[in-house]
Amino acid sequence: MKVRGARVLRVLGRGLIVLVAFLLVPSVEFLISARSFASYRYVPPDVGRLPAVAPPAHVPGKPTVAIVVGNAGANVADTLVPYDVLASTGKFNVYTVAPERRPVPLLGGLDLVPDLDFAQLDRRLGGEAPDVTVVPEMPSDEDSDRRVVAWLRSTASRGLVLSVCTGARLVADAGLFDGREATTHWYRLAGLRRAHPAVRWRRGVRYLDDGNVISTGGLLSSVDGSLRVIERLAGPDTAAAAARAAGWRHYSPGAPARMPESRLSPSNAIVHILNLGYRSDTSTIGVVLTGGVGELELASVFSPYGEVKAARTVAIASTATVRSRHGLTFLPRRRLADTGDDVDRLMVPGTAAAANPDAGIAAAARRAGVPLEYPHRQPGFAFDPVLGSLARTFDRPTARWTRKILEYPDAGRGPSGPAWPWAPTLRLVLSGLVGVAALAIVRVIAQLIRTRSLRPRTADGRVDGSPGDGDEEAKS
């Protein structure tokens, strides 16, 4: 019995060693890729000075909306989706504001020139607070966080505050949620609950309206939160028109819509690991910026890939600056003429760009030898065709995970595409086999060394049977 037990332990021990060897190389590869992607998400713009861009005009009598972007940047969907929904009504002065007016990165490599800094906004409003302040997710940065939180507490709190996704972190840090109900992205809710126990956090609702503070769930829940702001300040008819203009079919007038109480599932975790560790560093999508592109259309291309880490995106244009439909200024990171085969395909967001294709963009795609895609050829919600493209070019599980992260309501039957992320799975398996092969080689070498060390030796230290210096017959 003891012999059998020892044999089982030896087999288990050897199996454990093989498992560790299989996981070692993929683990190192995952950590390197994850670290690289994390540093890419909010890379600061390489701009020496602020381009000569005039801030938009102010129309007296209209409510003012300030969308805050920190000095370290902000989430692209959290920023651009509310901007587009609110600006499309024509009922508001809508500005992007930051502690300092300098180019900042939006998630995925889209560089924005804020309209105003805090001091400029204060002068423009004569010391009054903006009527509405929108707080998107911002990357953690000690100096920027301190300045944004102080401004929220001293200035924005005198108006209506709309937190989007994990922008709730900064609003909670400012103490504006204390004693109130609030919501945030389901993925970050547990951490915020631990950090801010004075807030009554709720799950499974698209937004919560608590007086002068409205909080939304993640990302596309900001559409509903923005429509709620429009209802309160411009009326339900204007809100319904804004929903139609955005192609948003899920508008719930007067009350927040319910949604599933999402949590991370094992399949979600596997897809996330495969994309982040074994695909994100190999896929790059060039996003071509064109004048007059809609802000929501821009977000629909940059956000899905950046959120699920399936690919990197890079902003490309033929000009030094690009103005969006409602007047935001963006700086491309590459010139169209320099497009090479280091991008896997080009995507050109915008219905206007799709209706009037640019011959220069087509020529750039041909020179690089990459596919060219205009996702917004048909009217509708801008994210729909991009999610369909993601499913076709990557796989359906990645598209479903993206939809869940975006908090985009299920549209029924999903798009076509591969049933599993096979390419990153194969890469993981091959990396694991490299580790097992390395283990086998080490064991063979160790066995050879051990066998040689156990062979009998002569009095002069030579292995018995090996030729000596004077053994001419053996040498021959």
From TrEMBL:
Keyword RNA-binding among record annotations: no
Record-annotated membrane-spanning stretches: 428-446
Keyword DNA-binding: no
Disordered, as annotated region: 457-476
InterPro entries for this protein: Class_I_gatase-like, DJ-1/PfpI, INH-QAR
Short name of one Pfam family: DJ-1_PfpI
Positions of the DJ-1/PfpI domain: 65-216
Keywords annotated in UniProt: Membrane, Transmembrane, Transmembrane helix
Protein name: DJ-1/PfpI family protein
Native source species: Actinomadura fibrosa
